[in-house]
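Appendix B, example 12.
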Amino acid sequence: MSVAAMLSVIALLSVSAWRITGSMQPEPSVAVAEVASSDTDVSAGDAATQQQEKLLLGQSTVVGVDASNTSNTDPIAMIGPMVTAQLVGQYAGLQDQGTYSSSTAALAAGNVAANMRAVVSYKTYALADLKTDTDTSYQRMLTYRADLRTAFAPLLKNTLSELDLFAKYEETSDPTYLTQLRAAAVNYDEAIALTAHVVVPRDAVNYHLSVLNAMSEFSATIEAMSVHGEDALASAALLRTYNKAEADMYNSFNALGSYYSQKTP
């Protein structure tokens, strides 16, 4: 999905949410906004939930966190309430200042939409997780490349674009597409597990870790999309996360290809 198309979706969702909150009275709106802008009601263990709130308040730009930093609270499920609270707060502020109009409302909603990000938790890999080989010869690279082809084999089961599956669900509301999206994430998880056990030439470690972490991020993202497909605001935020995860996948595999090409017989 192009950036322009993605932003159009987010803008549409933010306008819809604004119309819902537009019928609310200012006094209760202020109370909701205060809850949304306070960190005191969030437990110390909910790092991902805190991150979601900071993102929506424009206080942070970080997208990914390690899965070990999260509690049982699903931070992505909090996006809808947080966005709604922000919209309500913006409405209350405009009313208090006497500056409410259709144009200022649209601008405020656009500002909230601009900060929408989804924090997706995923396992990150480090050097300590790998088995390495000091042989960095051309022949060793060929063996490594063959091993990776075997490790990546589960990805061949994903015959349809993950974004197309998500778009089909949004178009039809057929849960079959979310099931297929979840299955695609499972195939990524299988490939990740196999890739993590490949013995890596020492000069390929950085490329290997980049690919592993990109696949982990991408798998977690499409899994989250399959779980939260019915949540319009969470889906809009996840589309931004998806674009980043897809770019990270492309860049990591492209860099791995450059590693192959640098080797000579």
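The chain has two domains: 3-114, 124-262. Residues 232-262 form the longest helix (31 residues).
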